[in-house]
């Protein structure tokens, strides 16, 4: 179905941060499958993990568990640094759907979400997603969601009360273009939700799994949420998501309350373990933080660049005029994949294996495009 419009390219193979189209043209991939291919393309650790697991078990059903499923749940809770329970899914939307259902088990229904936030396209996840163009054709959606301006402490304080089931926030808004909230925002969300007996749910689908230079974006704020949803980078391209319930929040969904056929299957969980192992072994959190700073510094001096946002390897570039689509198209023609996430905003979410030399080359291509692009 024509849900995405015409595809830009036919891609045939990749290696690290490079991909090739069907005509043999090479591209530097600074979008990484939209923050998914954290190990780049064709990474030997991921390829080996998938191939090895495929010789043992690909799928078993949730009447049973598997060693990789148990190990991944324990690893994720270890990265959170808390006791809890994990529900595995196949996508970010499904992780959020599980979390949304979990919040209903508190006995309250009111959810506070953020303007410009993105949580997915199912009816439930869409109800939490702000963008009217996404929502309005599908209303009525599940109700009782109040939207507040992202980063506004007073608006959040005014919205959260003793009827609030949960506050759902991205630790940095991804689809909106790597919008970082003011210092203290997540800590305030934590104290407000604690005060009113509501859950704090962080959607880390885009910002999790090392993207920001921490395992989860919220960790820079020194808080622990009640619910964390992850997906995109977790399987390095193999579809997997997780809804992590910390402490008592992990026990809200009880037998019969929720389910999935494919979620948490041995192939996907083995792939995710290989991703986490490789990030650790190759010190890719530090690399993401350092390379992200280098990219932001280099980009901030370019023509038409009004602001540069983000942390680690999720970077937003605000332009002084609505040329993002033209910049995207010309960059692609020059061998650089990036994302136009708004009329005047670009987003970069490259693989963590991007090298300094590749980052510099990408900036040089973007610089040439921005110099040429007429106003
Ligand atoms: C991409 C995204 C989702 C949806 O994930 P899918 O895997 O596309 O279902 C949800 N929340 C955030 C923050 C995202 O960036």
TrEMBL record:
CDD domains: OAT_like (cd00610). It is an enzyme of class 2 (transferase). GO terms for molecular function: identical protein binding; N2-acetyl-L-ornithine:2-oxoglutarate 5-aminotransferase activity; pyridoxal phosphate binding. It is found in: Cytoplasm. GO terms for cellular component: cytoplasm. Pathway: Amino-acid biosynthesis; L-arginine biosynthesis; N(2)-acetyl-L-ornithine from L-glutamate: step 4/4. This is Acetylornithine aminotransferase. It comes from Solicola gregarius.
């Amino acid at each position: 179905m024509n849900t995405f419009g015409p595809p830009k390219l036919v891609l045939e193979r990749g290696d690290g941060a490079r991909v090739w189209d069907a005509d043999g043209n090479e591209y530097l991939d600074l979008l990484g499958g939209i923050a998914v291919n954290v190990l780049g393309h064709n990474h030997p650790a991921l390829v080996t993990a998938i191939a090895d697991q495929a010789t043992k078990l690909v799928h078993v059903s949730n009447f049973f568990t598997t060693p990789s499923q148990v190990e991944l749940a324990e690893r994720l809770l270890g990265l959170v640094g808390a006791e809890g329970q994990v529900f595995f899914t196949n996508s970010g939307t499904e992780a959020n759907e599980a979390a949304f259902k979990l919040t209903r088990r508190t006995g309250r229904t009111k959810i506070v979400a953020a303007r410009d936030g993105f949580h997915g396209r199912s009816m439930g996840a869409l109800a939490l997603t702000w963008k009217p163009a996404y929502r309005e054709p599908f209303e009525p959606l599940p109700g009782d969601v109040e939207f507040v301006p992202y980063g506004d402490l007073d608006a959040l304080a005014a919205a959260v009360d003793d009827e609030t089931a949960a506050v759902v926030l991205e630790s940095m808004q991804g689809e909106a273009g790597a919008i970082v909230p003011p210092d203290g925002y997540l800590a305030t969300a934590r104290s407000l939700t604690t005060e009113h007996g509501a859950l704090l749910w962080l959607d880390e689908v885009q910002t999790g799994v090392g993207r920001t230079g921490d395992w989860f974006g919220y960790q820079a704020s020194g808080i622990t949420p009640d619910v964390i949803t992850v997906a995109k980078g977790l399987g390095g391209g193999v579809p997997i998501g997780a809804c992590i319930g910390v402490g008592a929040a992990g026990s809200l969904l009880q037998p019969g309350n929720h389910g999935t056929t494919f979620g948490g299957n041995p192939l996907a969980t083995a792939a995710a373990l290989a991703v986490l192992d490789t990030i650790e072994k190759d010190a890719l959190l530090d690399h993401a933080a350092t390379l992200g700073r280098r990219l932001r510094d280099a980009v901030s001096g370019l023509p038409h660049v009004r602001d540069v946002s983000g942390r680690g390897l999720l970077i937003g570039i605000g332009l002084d005029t609505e040329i993002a689509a033209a910049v995207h198209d010309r960059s692609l023609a020059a061998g650089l994949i990036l994302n136009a996430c708004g009329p005047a905003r670009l987003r970069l979410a490259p693989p963590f294996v991007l090298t300094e030399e590749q980052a510099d080359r990408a900036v040089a291509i973007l610089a040439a495009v921005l110099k040429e692009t007429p106003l």
